[in-house]
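Researcher: Quick test of sequence recovery. Tokens follow.
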């Protein structure tokens, strides 16, 4: 005779079938509770409770009897390693039992079999298979649902399956003041996974698996955050014509000085022509002065095109060689050229400004300022600058692998699009790729699962821990996911380990 029925036989017989419920009764406001102590005397009335609490109370009593299932839940949690180094394990156990009491009816026999399978770690392959099989899929095709995967196992033991799974998924607790991520408890209870040592979960054939929820940050070091100061330093060291805020102010002062030197001979010319009773050129000369003033008034919006338009108008207004003596004409021409040069320098400085510590910029501002502008970097220099986005310390060989991989994904005019077209999406994908791949390599994860806390949809990123291979493949996956993967360029002093990513499905 079998000691117990194999769990797979239980599931095949009752999967997706409702757990037998307590016989239906008419809903009433209050229920009287009586106790019969060993059949001695008449049953004693204990008190009256509302109908909802009566259902919970009945589940509690039935679970704690000699044949109750609470001891099996304890076995499941201990087999999942939630008791190890956990001073608050008793609270965890009581909370899980309380959740079940409030959400579900229970098939004690099925829970007992689940406990035995959990200890043996021989069955319950559903979740492990889902993680592995979907790890080879790319884009939306690789999105799978945790609830659908676990429902057959949960439904064999409990009623109200969906609500129970969401309650266990969202239960937040700590072990020795270290927070446990959402979903970890649920996954271990109904699969052959256990609490991991380095990653969140450990599976027999997959090893360590990392889990991330909404805004999950793939990182454990703050190397990328240091780019807030190192990227401007890199650009100032490598760039050919890069300016800081102080340099821009200096360039603007030179514009003001050159303007005043230009206005002086023009005004002298006006006075000279007036003294000669020649006033037919007043409009032209005054127009030149107005154009010069207009340039100064619009300095924040001045660009190369508008500068050339102003210069052309000034030259037209000033040009009349018959009325200029040679000395005056030469002076105006020289000062105009110096004024135009000063304006050009100012525009170049403004358009190629690097944010430094003096500007007190955010990490996001530094990153976009550094990578979405043309600072005269060569292709190799630009790729070197991108290595500052790696969020873990790597060996020289591994960092060289990063450069090789970046060269492979940034083909054709990709860098030009970043520098000249403000291609923020590509920049986000590059940084997300670097954070995911180097995080996985640092911890030697083969699988990282992103989860949507509301829908319980999941996506598996699979790694070889070879950066030359992983970076192009993960970059492709992120592109294939499109809007399904939210990427934020957000690092700060408190959250500096990796940019937040979210599965939007």
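Model:
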């Amino acid at each position: 005779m079998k000691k117990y029925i194999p769990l797979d036989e239980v599931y095949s017989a009752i999967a997706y079938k409702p757990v037998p419920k307590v016989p239906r009764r008419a809903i009433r406001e209050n229920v009287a509770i009586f106790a019969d102590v060993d059949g001695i005397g008449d049953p004693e009335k204990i008190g009256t409770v509302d109908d909802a609490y009566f259902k919970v109370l009945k589940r509690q009593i039935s679970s704690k009897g000699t044949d109750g299932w609470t001891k099996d839940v304890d076995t499941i949690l201990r087999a999942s390693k939630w008791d190890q180094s956990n001073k608050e394990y008793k609270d965890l156990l009581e909370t899980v039992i309380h959740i079940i009491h409030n959400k579900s009816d229970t098939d004690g026999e099925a829970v007992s079999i689940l406990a035995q399978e959990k200890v043996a770690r021989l069955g319950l392959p559903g979740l492990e298979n889902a993680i592995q099989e979907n790890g080879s899929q790319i884009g939306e095709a690789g999105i799978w649902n945790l609830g659908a995967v676990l429902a057959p196992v949960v439904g064999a033991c409990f009623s109200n399956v969906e609500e129970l799974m969401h309650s266990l998924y969202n239960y937040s607790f700590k072990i020795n003041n270290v927070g446990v991520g959402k979903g970890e408890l649920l996954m271990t209870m109904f699969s052959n996974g256990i609490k991991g040592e380095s990653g969140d979960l450990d599976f027999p054939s997959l090893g360590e698996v990392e889990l991330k929820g909404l805004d999950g940050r793939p990182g454990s070091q703050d190397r990328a955050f240091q780019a807030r100061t190192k990227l401007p330093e890199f650009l100032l060291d490598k760039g050919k014509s890069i300016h800081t805020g102080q340099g821009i102010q200096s360039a603007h002062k030179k514009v003001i000085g050159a303007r005043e030197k230009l206005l002086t001979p023009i005004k002298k010319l006006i006075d000279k022509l007036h003294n000669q009773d020649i006033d037919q050129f007043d409009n032209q000369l005054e127009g030149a002065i107005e154009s010069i003033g207009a340039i100064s008034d619009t300095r924040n919006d001045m660009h190369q095109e508008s500068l050339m338009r102003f210069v052309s108008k000034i030259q037209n207004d000033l040009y009349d060689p018959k009325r200029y003596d040679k000395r005056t004409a030469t002076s105006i021409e020289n000062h105009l050229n110096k004024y135009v040069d000063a304006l050009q320098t100012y525009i170049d400085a403004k358009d190629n400004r690097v944010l430094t510590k003096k500007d007190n910029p955010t990490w996001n501002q530094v990153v976009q300022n550094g990578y979405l502008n043309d600072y005269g970097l060569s292709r190799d220099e630009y790729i070197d600058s991108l290595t500052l986005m790696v969020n873990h310390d790597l060996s020289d060989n591994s960092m060289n692998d990063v450069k090789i991989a970046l060269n492979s994904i940034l083909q054709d005019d990709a860098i030009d699009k970043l520098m000249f077209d403000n291609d923020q999406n590509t920049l986000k994908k590059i940084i997300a790729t670097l954070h995911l791949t180097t995080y996985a390599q640092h911890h030697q994860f083969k699988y990282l699962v992103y989860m949507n806390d509301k829908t319980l949809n999941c996506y598996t990123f699979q790694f070889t821990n070879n950066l030359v291979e992983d970076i192009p493949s993960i970059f492709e996956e992120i592109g294939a996911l499109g809007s399904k993967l939210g990427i934020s360029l957000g690092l700060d002093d408190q959250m500096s380990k990796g940019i937040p990513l979210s599965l939007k499905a």
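Residues 7-212 form one domain.
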